[in-house]
Amino acid sequence: MLSSKLISRSPFMRSASTHAPRGLASILQKNPDDVVITFAKRTAMGRAKKGQLKDTRLTSCYLALFKATLEKTKLDPTKIDDICVGTCHPPSPLYVSRAAALAAGIPHYVPISTVNRLCSSGLMAIRNIAHAIQAGETSIGLALGAESMTTHARPTPEICTKVDEHTEAHDCIQPMGWTSEEVAKTYKVSRKTQDKYALISHTRASEAQAKGIFADEIIPVELNGAVVSVDDTIRPGVTAETLAALKPAFPKWEPASTTAGNASGVGDGAAICIMTTRERAEKEGMEIIGKWVGSAVTGVEPKHMGISPVVAIPKVLEQVGLTKEDIDVYEINEAFASQFAYCVEKLGIPIEKINPNGGAIAVSHPLGMTGVRQVVTGLAELKRRNGTLLCTSMCVGSGMGAAGIFVNEARSTSKL
Q1: Which pTM does this prediction carry?
Q2: Which of 119, 237, 397, 403 has minimal CB crowding within 10 Å?
Q3: Which reaction does it catalyse (predicted)?
């Protein structure tokens, strides 16, 4: 018999989701205690400090999203058991998110929490609500991801000298641009390769916006006297030539290949999922659009933070008994083209399956929002193509990574 120490050290036991089904047949079964998603939408995003949300406080964004969601779904707010918000940098995040929930008409007896695991914070909010439902502690919960990078930019981490003397401790608080250049240098990801993947993202997002595809996942909200319903972060007309002409964003770090065109945009926005059990959803007459399967979290060497999806994705797939070929759509966060290119090629996943409507390089990366936004985006795309499985993943600042698996239960009636 394996010792408890050996079991605890297994990479597939640590950070495991509880009660996760294993194998495709098991995952696709419909059981009364399944954790399901009945609503998944996001606000339109705005360019940080320049876009449509630059004058909007995060509390206003929360309030507008709560109110729009309750109005759209007709969910009785007295039936909500818990709320979890993924967000990274605002001061007193619990106070401001709870204040916004109360102002939106959610009763004072509905509790709320916030979670910060940097770029995966939104996915962790979904995970926390899912685990609470699986444990029988929550029946209906809201998971949000939100960030205003205009009003709350990344603060400079401060550590004591004794901690800073440790190499990995020092590395884990360095600017993310430095980690991008470290990945490019260590794994020999050229500027040309980075620009190639960036162009794919920009092109796909521009085409998706022109076709109105993002309207399927955006819930219009009223902010500052205007209805916000279209992303202003996407830059049409990006070409290989315009990308090649951009100067390095971080010239002091070799190989200085990261630019404003091949790194994620800095943005503002919020996203939300309503989650419950299948039994409760059916009882309440709620439309089921997706099913939570499980998640995995991992750590990597901090200076190579960006490569973590190559660890997190295989980990979550093994955990739930799937292969990479089983997945129909991958939403992998494009923090930087350096790490994204490496992950795509290392994982060996066809680019046609990954970020089919572009990713963060084109649409931006409001940190706390991204983990929920990618689920919203992925489920909407699965519905369009009548696909079944979504895998979402992202690298996480300080040297971590996360991934999650979801089942689509919303079928498109379109003949396109």
Answers
A1: 0.94
A2: 237
A3: an acyl-CoA + acetyl-CoA = a 3-oxoacyl-CoA + CoA
